[in-house]
Amino acid sequence: MAYEIRTAGSPINFPSMRDAEPKTLYELIGLYEAMTTFIECGSAFLTQSRFETDGKMNPAGEYIDEFVEALSGERDVLMNKIIDFKPATADEADLQYRLFIRFEPETPAMSFEQLIELLRRGQAAVANAS
Fold first, then answer.
1. Using CA atoms, how far apart are residues 68 and 81, in angstroms rounded to an integer?
2. Each residue's pLDDT tens digit, 70-82
3. Are residues 81 and 51 in the same domain?
4. Mode of pairing for the β-strands spanning 52-53 and 12-15
5. What's the structural domain count of the chain?
6. Please, are residues 20 and 38 in contact by the beta-carbon 8 Å criterion?
7. Which domain holds residue 116?
8. Average pLDDT, integer, range 88-109
């Protein structure tokens, strides 16, 4: 399954995280960090005046915005894979736990109760993997 970005010209397709099968937590987190960097860079570009015309986003800005939104959605899918990942070692459990803490501020849809549950799962995983 590919995600399609609609543009004035030909659509751009890129693969979906739903189809990706990273094998290790390190691969998943590497992808997460890369996606986060791309999202942050795209968002930073959108603050530049060259992506606005008369105070509104121009077509170049709209393209970047759509790309950032698509990648943000893919990162959410990836985070669900990271949440579902079953760590085999205490190091993997600790790494997964730390990512939960880092990811929470970037997820406005996550409730406080969900965060507490993730943190408890992380603590339990670290304790059980030791």
1. 20
2. 898 888 888 888 8
3. yes
4. unpaired
5. 2
6. no
7. 87-130
8. 74
